[in-house]
Amino acid sequence: MIDILDLLSAIGGLGGLALIISVAYWLGRKFSEIDKRFEKIDERFKHIEKRFKQIDGRFKQVDERFGQIDERFEKIENRLNRIEDNLSELNLRVEKIEHRLGHVEQRLYETTYKLDKLDSKVTRFTRAIRSINEFMIDSLSLEGAIKVESATIIKKEVYRILALVESNPLTRYEKQRLKELLDKDTLTYEEAEELYKIADKIVEEYGEYLEAWKLLWYARMWMGINIRKMAEEKKKEKLWSIS
């Protein structure tokens, strides 16, 4: 074993001992500083680990929120899919309805066309019957078969027409004039012609009523009676001039 005195002698006595103590003290302080720095580094690492844990926690929260968002999107997509399915079904129904409406419209068009043709035929037939009646009345009047007495008989039934023409199609003047003409016992040709024009408007509006036609025939009878009367007067004048 090395004796302490021999060691001190080797180093240089007390001066060497002081040097050794100084070096040892310096080294102790350095190691202490190094330890403190390592402690600080450890604390920093702990702080960093804590921060990482917080970040991990936030990432978990974000993941959870993304999961919730994904669930919501799935629900929305499911709803949209159901809505699209419903819309597709509705579109099919609408197409079927439109198809059926197209058939209905076509049938209505065809029916309307047929009714228009029928109405046109009825109108032509009515005009033909009217022309025939007027021709017969004119012919009978000119031949003297229809006399004033016959017109008077029809006149009693013609009065019923006044109840039909309270609103349309006559003007206020025409209504008043109709009443005045019917109140007369006899009509001149001009008055009969005026009554005929009024009767013509009434037949166009109320042709389904027999009274309207009787008024037309009544006016026509007086027109024929006056024409025959004027023809007879001309004949008499001609005979008087010859004699």
Q: How many structural domains can be distinguished in the coordinates?
A: 2
Mean pLDDT: 78
Low-confidence stretches: none
Taking the alpha carbons of the first and last residues, their distance comes to 205 Å
Radius of gyration: 63 Å
Q: Main β-sheet, in a few words? A: none
Coarse structural class: mainly alpha
How many distinct helices? 6
Please state roughly what percent of the residues sit in beta strands, choosing from under 5%, 5-15%, 15-25%, 25-35%, 35-45% or over 45%.
under 5%
Name the helicity range: over 70%
Write the layout of secondary structure elements.
Blueprint lengths: L3 H8 L2 H130 L4 H11 L13 H12 L5 H18 L3 H33 L1
Helix pairs in contact: 2-6, 3-6, 4-5, 5-6
What would you note in describing this structure?
This protein is mostly helical and 243 residues long. It has two domains: 54-143; 145-242. Helix content is 87%, strand content 0%. It contains six helices and no strands. The protein has helices at residues 4-11, 14-143, 148-158, 172-183, 189-206, 210-242. α2 packs parallel to α6 and α4 (172-183) packs across α5. The longest helix has 130 residues, at 14-143. The radius of gyration is 63 Å and the shape is rod-shaped. It starts with a helix and ends with a helix.
Keywords:
243 residues; mainly alpha
Please give a quick description of this structure.
By secondary structure, the chain is mainly alpha-helical. The protein contains six helices and no strands.
